[in-house]
């Protein structure tokens, strides 16, 4: 039975379409003969994330990005289709994190599977997060460093201005020091002989002072010996005088105790003490009578006549 031309054309078109479909998906990186499941994740921004980007768990690729869809009715968020191997078991605590693969800006989706949780079915939506890329991290970390660098540069500029202000006086001071040093060198050169003579005299004086016979040490020894002798002589004389004084005092006290001498009689004989008391009493009476009758004791007349007192 002959096949008509139309049937041959239809079969050719069908085969071409199948080949085109399989070829297009192969070029996208889709494995048409693998057993995979599709999940979804929604991100506010999917810049840099493209179809066929890898999906990994702990650095092992378990799938790839299968599609990107703009959700205009949901704030222009992006719906990402994840083509994941069927053997990978996900649960409702799994997080799909968009992360950078290097400095060149490549993207991937890292799956972080939590412990426990309800197993997911194909077509469920994962929890989504976006990891700050490496360049963003470097930029964020560089911001405080940039501020510190700006502050350091400003301080350096201020320091340089201050240094410029003091550089001229400092230059003058250094020039004065150089001139002073030159003048001192000239003075030393002119008086080199005199300085040498002074040093020689000092050395001779030092030698004389250190001489064991006429130097300082024997002189100090003699002075110490003389001082010790004087101290012993003075101390001996002082002790002798003190002993003599103590002996006299002891002798005087013994005489008083024995009733000898005036002090002894006064201390031992009551009659002398009583006589002194009576004498003192009579003297008091005489002074009282003198104050009351002075004419009895003093006779005085302007004309030289005696004033006779009637008895």
UniProtKB/TrEMBL annotation:
The chain crosses the membrane at residues 7-27. It holds the Pfam family MlaD. Keywords: Membrane, Transmembrane, Transmembrane helix. It comes from the Bacteria. Residues 37-111 form the Mce/MlaD domain. PANTHER family: INTERMEMBRANE PHOSPHOLIPID TRANSPORT SYSTEM BINDING PROTEIN MLAD, INTERMEMBRANE PHOSPHOLIPID TRANSPORT SYSTEM BINDING PROTEIN MLAD-RELATED. This is MlaD family protein. It comes from Xanthocytophaga agilis. The lineage of its organism: Bacteria, Pseudomonadati, Bacteroidota, Cytophagia, Cytophagales.
């Amino acid at each position: 039975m002959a096949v008509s031309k139309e049937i041959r054309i239809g079969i050719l078109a069908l085969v071409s379409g199948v080949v085109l479909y399989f070829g297009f998906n192969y070029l996208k990186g889709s494995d048409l003969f693998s057993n995979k499941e599709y999940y979804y994740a929604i991100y506010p921004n999917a810049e840099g994330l493209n179809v066929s980007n890898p999906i990994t768990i702990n650095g092992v690729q378990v799938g790839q990005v299968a599609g990107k869809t703009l959700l205009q009715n949901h704030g222009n968020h992006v719906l990402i289709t994840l083509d994941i191997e069927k053997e990978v078991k996900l649960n409702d605590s799994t997080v799909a994190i968009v992360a950078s693969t290097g400095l060149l800006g490549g993207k991937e989706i890292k799956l972080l599977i939590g412990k426990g949780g309800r197993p997911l079915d194909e077509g469920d939506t994962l929890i989504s997060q976006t990891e700050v890329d490496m360049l963003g991290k470097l930029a964020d970390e560089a911001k405080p460093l940039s501020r510190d660098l700006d502050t350091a540069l400003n301080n350096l500029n201020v320091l340089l201005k201050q240094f410029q202000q003091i550089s001229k006086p400092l230059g003058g001071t250094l020039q004065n020091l150089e001139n002073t040093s030159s003048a001192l060198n000239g003075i030393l050169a002119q008086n080199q002989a005199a300085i040498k003579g002074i040093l020689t005299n000092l050395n001779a004086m030092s030698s004389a002072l250190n001489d064991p016979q006429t130097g300082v040490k024997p002189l100090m020894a003699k002075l110490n010996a003389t001082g010790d002798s004087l101290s012993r002589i003075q101390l001996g004389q002082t002790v002798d005088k003190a002993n003599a004084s103590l002996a006299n005092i002891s002798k005087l006290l013994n005489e008083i105790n024995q009733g000898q001498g005036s002090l002894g009689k006064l201390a031992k004989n009551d009659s002398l003490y009583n006589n002194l008391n009576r004498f003192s009493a009579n003297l008091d009476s005489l002074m009282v009578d003198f104050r009351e009758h002075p004419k009895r004791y003093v006779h005085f007349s302007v004309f030289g006549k005696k004033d006779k007192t009637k008895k």
